[in-house]
Amino acid sequence: xxxxxxxxxxxxxxxxxxxxxxxxxxxxxxxxxxxxxxxxxxxxxxxxxxxxxxxxxxxxxxxxxxxxxxxxxxxxxxxxxxxxxxxxxxxxxxxxxxxxxxxxxxxxxxxxxxxxxxxxxxxxxxxxxxxxxxxxxxxxxxxxxxxxxxxxxxxxxxxxxxxxxxxxxxxx
Length: 172
Hints:
single chain, 172 residues, alpha+beta, 7-stranded antiparallel sheet, 4 helices, 7 strands, 26% helix, disordered N terminus
């Protein structure tokens, strides 16, 4: 179960960190995000695992809520180098890989689907949403077999918003 969740979480992070954005969304090609500080919120929309104890589901929900509110600074150089297609090709983490049956990242829209394998676990993953210069809104659906038997489905919504210039680290 933990391995399955790792694949799903890494897939979600690929989506957020890899989605490039630009001030003027072109009719085709990925939109480039604006440099600066970005705040990401994660919402667990659906989490179904047959036979999973309620305590474990609550723990997963709390873990997702804990990922909300994350601030990240992206410099102009970083956003210029972003390449969602390259990020998607890498797959989840070390030794993981994804085979995408659909990989449409054009004109401010993302519609990606495929199968990812990591840590001996295989899952079907789909990501749909919008990409703008100052906001990303992506829904990630992950489905797969649970090692204990049965089918698991997790749906997360990740929203990232540009909040202004990068925050200056405070020194104490």
